[in-house]
Amino acid sequence: MAILVQKFGGTSVADAEKIRRAAGRVIEAVKKGYQVVVVASARGHQTDELIADALELNPNPSKREMDQLLSTGEQQTVSLFAMALHAMGYDAISFTGGQIRMLTDGVYTKARIMSIDASRIHKQLDSGKIVTVAGFQGIDENENITTLGRGGSDTTAVAIAAALKAEECEIYTDVDGVYTTDPRIFKKAAKMKQISYDEMLELASLGAGVMHSRSIEFGKKYNVKIHVRSSSEQTEGTIITHEVPQMEGVVVSGATIQKDMAKITLIGVDNKPGNAAKIFAHLARAKVVVNDIIQTEVSGAKANLSFTIGISDLPTAKEAVEEIKKEVGCEKVLARDDIAEISAVGVGMRNHYGVAEKLFGSLANAKINIDAITTSEIRISCIVDKKDAERGLEAVCTAFELDKPAEKRGKTK
Amino acid sequence: MAILVQKFGGTSVADAEKIRRAAGRVIEAVKKGYQVVVVASARGHQTDELIADALELNPNPSKREMDQLLSTGEQQTVSLFAMALHAMGYDAISFTGGQIRMLTDGVYTKARIMSIDASRIHKQLDSGKIVTVAGFQGIDENENITTLGRGGSDTTAVAIAAALKAEECEIYTDVDGVYTTDPRIFKKAAKMKQISYDEMLELASLGAGVMHSRSIEFGKKYNVKIHVRSSSEQTEGTIITHEVPQMEGVVVSGATIQKDMAKITLIGVDNKPGNAAKIFAHLARAKVVVNDIIQTEVSGAKANLSFTIGISDLPTAKEAVEEIKKEVGCEKVLARDDIAEISAVGVGMRNHYGVAEKLFGSLANAKINIDAITTSEIRISCIVDKKDAERGLEAVCTAFELDKPAEKRGKTK
Question: Which of A166, A210, B108, B126 could bridge to A3 as Cys pair (CB 3.0-4.6 Å)?
């Protein structure tokens, strides 16, 4: 029998009515002949409330104890979910992460999954039960409870789908799929039928926010077909999978905007071996996460070096840069927090000419100045003034016809 | 190093301030040189809220899933308790029932403890940590979570004290000890310095309500000194222990009243072998818990048989009695729900004459009619009209000087 993993996030199980609705989704799949494993998050704001309870007692709580505390939220959801299924006439059994031996490393609050005992789940499925599993959590080899960090329940779902060789892993969420861009900014954004893991990873890391990048990496590694869909509407969502041939015809799949960022530029750094390493060692020690790095040579001996960071890291980064100036030496430091990054992503990009030209041209036509440019194999990003960001995204989306489904692009022009 | 187990009930850990106060008690014990194990219940009304959540989804929830759900309440408390201790500068670590391998049988919602892995707790205590353990819960041999039923956290505490050979098991509660009788009825009730397990068992089963009888049975079996004391006041409470010589001088230690009961009397039952067994088999099948049984022979061939039950079981018991009438035959059935039972309890009773006389005399002087009488080795109980119950208890308490500490009785008369 084919196995289906269905993951429901916190908003999809926030109250009894929503749990019943989610249970209805599960029963639909059972009626289609699937063995179903449900992975659920903590209900609504439960996790936030537990964090507040903890901080009231200790402003700097132990990570082990936080995991021990927060894991209860998912445990509650899955037992309640099983009860709801019982009430609807279906047999079900709930498990904590520990009970299915979801073994992780011992890094509390951001543990990594090492193995899952699939036999415990198979045994229950084969006895006719629906299995509900607490997301976000595991245990280390000493039976301490660990949690997987942000997006952890997605990772649990994808990992279980991999371990059970499930046909598909459905991620139920409050959006009905992955869009070509943020529909709040570009109202005509189109829903994608499918997207490759690599594109989704670029979009996730750039802030598309539908799924956390770790679960997509997991899906890519273990070849899990992920289906992002709406928990409230009966529509097909977006399939995240390996590249399929028709994808290559699509040059740009999606575009994103990232606003909460800042850029620091070191002007006139001595361009000698080891200096870049020293600079980023300073930033790493200060625990500043660096996004993009852009270096340009201004003369044989000097270079300008820019890097982008989260805006909240800017004060720390500025302090680190003072140290860097002392050690490495540079003529001037510029910091900007009034910028945003517009990116176009697409696996088709690597086989097509003219993508960069079209992107830069669309921004130029809109009279938007490009401050800096950085690229990867399937992405081109431009840093622009924050005030121009939304207008810029619209220009890019229009240029690449992101208001149309992929199969209809390039046909009306 | 001597080990102390401290148990805090739900009201003693209801909010951050109360958890901090409880943590203060723990730290006092640590400063006295004890290794301390904390056992805690779910905070305030958490368990009630979770039960309401469950019933909203399923009016008849699976017992396994209820245990999975409710065990989270205690898990939250002990992780928060550990965080509070950290904030106060003490090292601590929390454990679920499963993490200390509190193995139980597989009877969900009222499991019985089979074993505890004391080495896991010793290891942490010996490394200088305070250990906080979730009360009320364990796991069965298949790692399903079980709960111990009413008074379960007391049982957890006493069982851990037994397994660790603790010097004492302190039960912190909202009363400051065990009283000779209910102070809400007999205002002059005196606090007992000590009481034997057997007396406490009679008082607990008669509804004194301070501790559940299972934990006292556990204490008796494994010789755990139990100290019932106030979580808000710095006073000595009541020690529950084996009989000590001076206890024999005390004839009656305490008196109780039980109101939520009913009595059924079968008049003119054929007095032949096997009839009593048939009667109580019917009641057992109907899941009626029978308290006292009183049989009197009215002639060579006929007997009257009474039994008392909880008042909520009366409708079910009446139905069962109809079946009994058909099978066993009896002349008449009487049912009363307007009764109460007054009991005097004391280990000294068995070596003293005149206790019954004094008890009956005190009720007679108060012009209270005795409907029925039943006794055990350390208890005499009288069934009276419910309207007379409180007045009767006062008469009994006055007769046995239960307004004075045990050592002062019989000295002023």
Answer: A166
